């Protein structure tokens, strides 16, 4: 992934970033001293992501990887978010040569970072130094992390997440839009090279093997997702957190929050920890807004954050892995590079 010409090596790092549903809704315009990151508006999560919040967070993750790879290649990156009035141009990354720049430990973690949907080690608390270390990675005044590590906070988050998941799969359109990104069989995985695969979904070895032979129905996929969330992912987490911003509708703040998430996930990877976004609460709260106003999940989310000055954009869980999370497929470079900026 880190071979070839320098600009394309940076793009290769960006492609490996965390991204919602593995939709890879990004394009890169590449020049010798500049890379533009663009929103691939042809790729959408539909009602799962009604306001493209998750697409922008994902692009922020890619931007962070590109910036880290620039340093490893001997460049100082200058990142400008939403640099013009073009809503599809999410970031401009200017590259200034500097042979003194060295690769960081976060850069070296890029190929090792994977979203881990499997069970984590039960009963392990989140050390205070991990919370401090990850909070210290936030570099924007309009982004902060709300940690939910006490017993009452964790229970509240878990209860609301299960309720949001149940409401999600009970919504025919939202459930269908989610299922459209599930890749079960080997043929589907190799054809699309995107989406959440049977390997990466956190299923048992038997279910993974069966899923590659026989496509999972939407109903069975919903059942596995709810059971996995309720019985495996939530109970085994060492803690939960929610990335907050001042204005959840602001694209630059979403991108900045995505950069923070990617940085934190890479940091956790260097310390042998696992992470997974758990976006059901925010996805469902947004869906309630589209359908007519604040509903039970939105009200629960407001109570969980408990600060009207901050708005949630990305919940996640963190813990200690019990198995090596598999890599997810990525589209070819030719599919995401669109020429010069």
CATH fold-level name of the largest domain = NADH Oxidase
Radius of gyration: 19 Å
* CATH architecture call of the largest domain: 3-Layer(aba) Sandwich
Proportion of residues in helical segments: 40-55%
CATH homologous superfamily caption of the largest domain: NADH Oxidase
Indicate the proportion of strand residues. 15-25%
Beta-strand segment tally = 10
H/I helix tally: 13
**Major beta sheet, strand line-up:** 1-2-4-3
Please write the CATH class name of the largest domain: Alpha Beta
Q: Give the topology string: H per helix, E per strand.
A: HEEHEEHHEHHEHEHHEHEHHEH
Uncertain runs are: none
Largest sheet: 4 strands, antiparallel
What does this structure look like?
The protein is of the alpha+beta class and 341 residues long. The chain has two domains: 6-113 and 330-336, NADH Oxidase (3-Layer(aba) Sandwich), CATH 3.40.109; 128-319, NADH Oxidase (3-Layer(aba) Sandwich), CATH 3.40.109. 44% of the residues lie in helices and 17% in strands. It has 13 helices and ten strands. The chain has helices at residues 6-15, 53-72, 105-108, 128-135, 151-169, 172-179, 186-192, 205-213, 218-236, 251-270, 280-290, 296-305, 333-336, and strands at residues 26-31, 34-39, 75-81, 89-97, 143-148, 182-183, 196-197, 239-245, 274-277, 311-319. Helix 7 (186-192) links the parallel strand 6 and strand 7 (196-197). The longest helix has 20 residues, at 53-72. The relative contact order is 0.19. The mean pLDDT is 95.
């Amino acid at each position: 992934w880190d071979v070839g010409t320098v600009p394309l090596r940076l793009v290769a790092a960006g492609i490996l970033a965390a991204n919602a549903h593995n939709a890879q809704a990004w394009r890169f315009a590449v020049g010798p001293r500049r890379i533009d990151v663009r929103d691939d508006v042809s790729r959408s999560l539909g009602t799962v992501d009604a306001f493209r919040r998750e697409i922008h967070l994902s692009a922020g993750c890619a931007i962070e990887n590109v910036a880290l790879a620039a340093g490893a290649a001997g460049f100082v990156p200058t990142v400008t978010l939403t640099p013009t009035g073009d809503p599809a141009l999410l970031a401009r990354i200017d590259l200034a040569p500097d042979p003194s720049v060295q690769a960081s430990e976060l850069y070296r973690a890029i190929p090792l970072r994977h979203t881990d949907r499997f069970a984590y080690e039960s009963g392990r608390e989140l050390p205070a130094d991990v919370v401090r270390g990850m909070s210290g990675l936030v570099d924007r005044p309009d982004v902060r992390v709300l940690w939910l590590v006490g017993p009452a906070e964790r229970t509240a988050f878990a209860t609301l997440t299960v309720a949001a998941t149940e409401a999600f799969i009970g919504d025919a359109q939202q459930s269908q839009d989610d299922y459209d990104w599930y890749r079960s069989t080997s043929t589907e995985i190799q054809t699309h090279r995107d989406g959440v695969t049977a390997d990466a979904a956190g299923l048992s070895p038997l279910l993974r093997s069966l899923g590659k032979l026989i496509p999972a129905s939407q109903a069975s996929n919903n059942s596995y997702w709810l059971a996995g969330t309720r019985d495996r992912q939530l109970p085994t987490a060492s803690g939960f957190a929610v990335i907050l911003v001042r204005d959840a509708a602001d694209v630059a703040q979403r991108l900045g929050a995505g950069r923070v998430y990617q940085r934190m996930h890479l940091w956790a990877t260097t310390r042998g920890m696992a992470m997974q976004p758990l976006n059901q609460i925010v996805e469902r709260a947004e869906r309630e807004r589209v359908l007519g106003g604040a509903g039970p999940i939105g009200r629960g989310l407001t109570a969980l954050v408990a600060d009207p000055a901050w708005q949630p954009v990305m919940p996640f869980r963190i813990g200690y892995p019990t198995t090596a999370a598999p890599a997810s497929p990525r589209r070819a470079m030719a599919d995401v590079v669109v020429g010069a900026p």
